[in-house]
Design a protein that fits this description.
alpha+beta, Heat Shock Protein 90, 6-stranded mixed beta sheet, 6 strands
């Protein structure tokens, strides 16, 4: 099991990046009785046979991870969602990317804590290569949105410790505002 929901969001974002996606959309939304984590990408997608096995912990895509015999990331997402009264599903077609949508019972006793979303989001921004990552975060009507390209334009790069620290601090200030904490006076967008 993952220790927190931020781990699950990070897992989905990393899967999208590993698929060769140039555009990734990640949303973490808390509203009403649900927590939803959605990740969409324009990566390589999957055929029906592969898609039918992604939630099986005894399966790992040999193209993506030739040395792995097991793939536990997506099975853990689904197991955690189901343990909280929710579910996880995959939408994909070869050449058209993937979408994973996981829904969790927000007040369920087995729901893991939220964890450090700003650190998870900053980590996803730091992967090598040219890709656009858009993150949307919403909690009970409060929200923010950030794009990797905008952070890179503001900070110059996202690989050094100082740049990542500034990105995490910026994301943390917006996360506090989304949770109704602190004195955040900035906009909801970068």
């Amino acid at each position: 099991m993952h220790a927190c929901l931020a781990d699950l969001a990070s897992e989905l974002g990393q899967n999208a990046w590993e698929s060769g996606a140039s555009r990734i959309f990640l949303r973490v939304r808390e509203a009403g009785e649900r927590v939803e984590i959605e990740c969409r990408d324009n990566g390589c997608g999957m055929d029906a046979a592969t898609a039918g096995r992604v939630f099986d912990p005894r399966f790992s895509d040999a193209r993506k991870h030739p040395d792995r015999r097991f793939g536990l990331g997506l099975p853990f997402v689904k197991q955690t969602a189901e343990a909280t009264g929710g579910d996880a599903r995959l939408e994909t077609r070869p050449g058209n990317g993937c979408a994973v949508i996981a829904v969790f019972g927000r007040r369920h006793v087995d729901l893991p804590p939220l964890g450090d979303l700003p650190a998870a989001f900053a980590g996803l921004m730091a992967f090598e290569g040219e890709y656009e990552l858009t993150i949307e975060r919403e909690r009970d009507g409060r929200s923010y949105r950030v794009r990797r390209s905008e952070l890179r334009a503001a900070l110059g790069e996202l690989r050094s410790a100082p740049a990542l620290s500034m990105a995490k601090d910026w994301l943390a200030s917006h996360e506090e505002a989304a949770q109704g904490k602190g004195n955040h006076h900035g906009s909801n967008d970068t």
